[in-house]
């Protein structure tokens, strides 16, 4: 009984000899099916399973032999035929994997859209009942009449609040109460600066990470509130902030993008960048401020970029977790020119919690201040940042004419 492959014997010939030896010429009749399966398939299947597999192999070999004898494939040897079978099997496995990948992505999309619609329904009810639950707006500044205002336009950047984060280190103490107190200081300063420059038009760029989220263990440990509570509370605080600032100008435009701390999947590699809870915020603002005159909440763009026309100058902004300050003066204007046919004079980024700027090729790019200050992780790296928010003044004649870092001393 020779079960080993002979010298010079092809895989097809070896396979055929063992199968026919068992079932046709009976030279291997005394070999049990389990032992034969070990030689043929590399695994000692049970007798019943092995017997069915050997009979199946015989049918395949008979079909191949018949094709060869009838001329179909007469120009192919057995090795070529087996290679074709292997190639088709590999292609079938590829198609199966493509199908599984497509189904998984479709299920993720359906899950995301369902979750988004549910959150929107819940937020509608919450927005309609806010007056009964938490009272009227906190800020009640009277609408200012600009009278002889100038053509200056203001840009106020609100970013990196990380509402819900707690910190207590040598550089910074932070919680939700301190977040609100700092914001009150900064909004009052921005209000005064707009009056100083006689601004009639205000652009508010919300650049994300307003909530701390729960994307990894560290953020969950350092969080003061549940993520959903963070989102609802910060959305209301933002709505009240917009109402307060809008009382100082004739026209207010609000643009909102999202950061990276509110993503719904903890693992960055598995997450979809747009699957982000902060995308609910502009929708909430529209519900909350729908009855406020001269406040316009702009629709979300197709990506995370914000584009603003400020006094005739192009300003592009994003959260900045996917962008580099150094490369942005070349990359972002090229994207805007080719895709949107718009020019860019100024680029605003967030994410890094400290201010930094460069000028290149006639484009000013800057990283804007963060409100939260130094968290415990940054403290362990001896990285310090002053709690602040950025405000810019544009004029038609000059363009970017003033830059303020509105600091909080709390």
Characterization of the model:
By secondary structure, this protein is α/β, with parallel strands linked by helices. It folds into two domains: 11-75, no CATH class; 129-407, 4-Layer Sandwich (Purple Acid Phosphatase, chain A, domain 2). The chain is 42% helix and 16% strand. It is built from eleven helices and 13 strands. It has helices spanning 11-23, 33-41, 47-69, 78-128, 130-133, 176-197, 217-221, 227-246, 280-288, 328-340, 376-380; strands spanning 153-158, 167-168, 173-174, 201-206, 251-256, 295-297, 306-310, 313-317, 346-349, 356-360, 363-367, 388-395, 399-407. Helix 1 packs across helix 3 (47-69), helix 2 packs across helix 3 (47-69) and helix 8 packs across helix 9 (280-288). It is elongated and about 105 Å long. The model is unreliable at 216-222 (pLDDT under 50).
């Amino acid at each position: 009984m020779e079960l080993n492959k002979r010298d010079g014997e092809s895989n097809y010939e070896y396979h055929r000899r063992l199968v026919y030896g068992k079932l046709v010429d009976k030279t291997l009749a005394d070999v049990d099916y389990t032992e034969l399966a070990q030689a043929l398939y590399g695994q000692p299947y049970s007798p019943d399973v092995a017997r069915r597999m050997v009979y199946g192999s015989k049918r395949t070999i008979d079909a191949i032999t018949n094709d060869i004898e009838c001329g179909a494939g007469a120009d192919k040897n057995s090795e070529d035929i087996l290679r074709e079978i292997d190639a088709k099997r590999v292609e079938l496995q590829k198609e199966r994997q493509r199908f599984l990948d497509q189904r998984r992505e479709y299920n993720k999309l359906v899950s995301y859209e369902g979750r988004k619609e549910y959150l929107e329904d819940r937020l509608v009810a919450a927005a309609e009942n806010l007056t009964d639950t938490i009272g009227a707006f906190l800020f009640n500044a009277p609408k200012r009449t600009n009278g002889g205002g100038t053509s200056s336009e203001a840009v106020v950047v609100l970013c990196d609040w990380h509402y819900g984060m707690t910190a207590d280190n040598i550089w910074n103490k932070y919680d939700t109460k301190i977040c609100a107190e700092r914001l009150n200081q900064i909004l009052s300063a921005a209000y005064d600066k707009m009056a100083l420059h006689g601004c009639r038009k205000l652009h508010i760029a919300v650049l994300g990470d307003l909530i701390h989220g729960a994307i990894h263990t560290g953020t969950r440990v350092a969080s003061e509130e549940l993520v959903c509570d963070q989102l609802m509370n910060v959305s209301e605080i933002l709505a009240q902030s917009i109402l307060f600032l809008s009382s100082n100008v004739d026209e207010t435009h609000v643009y909102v993008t999202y950061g990276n701390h509110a993503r719904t999947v903890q693992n960055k590699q598995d997450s979809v960048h747009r699957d982000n809870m902060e995308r609910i915020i502009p929708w909430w603002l529209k519900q909350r401020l729908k009855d406020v005159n001269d406040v316009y909440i702009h629709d979300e763009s197709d990506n995370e970029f914000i584009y603003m026309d400020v006094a005739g100058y192009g300003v592009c902004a994003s959260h900045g977790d996917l962008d580099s300050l150094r490369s942005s003066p070349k990359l972002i204007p090229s994207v805007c020119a080719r895709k949107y046919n718009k020019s860019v004079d100024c680029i605003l980024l967030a994410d890094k919690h400290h201010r930094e700027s460069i000028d290149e090729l006639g484009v000013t790019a800057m990283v804007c201040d963060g409100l939260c200050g130094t968290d415990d992780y940054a403290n362990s790296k001896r990285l310090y940042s002053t709690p602040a928010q950025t405000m810019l003044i544009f004029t038609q004649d000059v363009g970017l004419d003033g830059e303020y870092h509105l600091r909080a001393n709390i």
